[in-house]
Amino acid sequence: MKWLHKTVAILSGSLLVAVGVNLFLVPHRLMDGGMIGIGLLATYYMQLPPGLVMIFVSLPVYVIVFFYDRRLFYHSFHGMLISSFFIDLLSDLRQWNLWSTSSSAVTGGVMIGMGVGLMLAYETNTGGTDLLAQFLARRFKMRIAVLILAIDGMIVAGSLQTIGMERTVFSLLTITAVAATTHMFSGVGQKRPPYTVIGPLGSLSRFRIMSTQHLSRQKQELAADSSTDWKRRKGKAVLLEKIKRKRMK
Q: What are residue 128's phi and psi, to 5 degrees?
């Protein structure tokens, strides 16, 4: 059933990302980070479909990951293709935006973060910098949401001269919402460590071992006492039986 959960996560995540981009970001010409941001820049100034741009720009990163982490490559490639397809497929949503720039920045960021987080929870992503962040996080044991925020921040900051100061500020708000929501949803479906009341897990394990040894020792002592008591009662019974026989004689 794991493949079914992963399929649902990819489809749901891709749909959330596509709605967040088309319904909330594009109408206000806001930016996101990563390959989505690069695709948005291509849409704003060259009228190119962002999903298609995302695929072409992500290919060099996939080539690098292919040689260093084949498992991550095979788990991620279809996620990038499906999310890019949904982004271009739902482009008609752009005309339905009725919200302010600030509301769209936060709401769009939350929806994109939910989509990216769900996909990361099942070891896939939207490609490009998300894939690079996942690759670095696995290699160096770092938090993936922090890496995504750092990379996205650099991309948005680099677009300042292109989109202007006001849109850059709102775009930074968007990527912050993306990073926070990604961190929340990237743990979906993963097992949590057992909850302990007394100290860390190591202390609890030692406590359990000591308790088991103590109970085992008590059982051995009780068994030894019972055996000794039984032998005493048996010897006393034998002695009384001998005295009784002598009296009868």
A: 65, -125
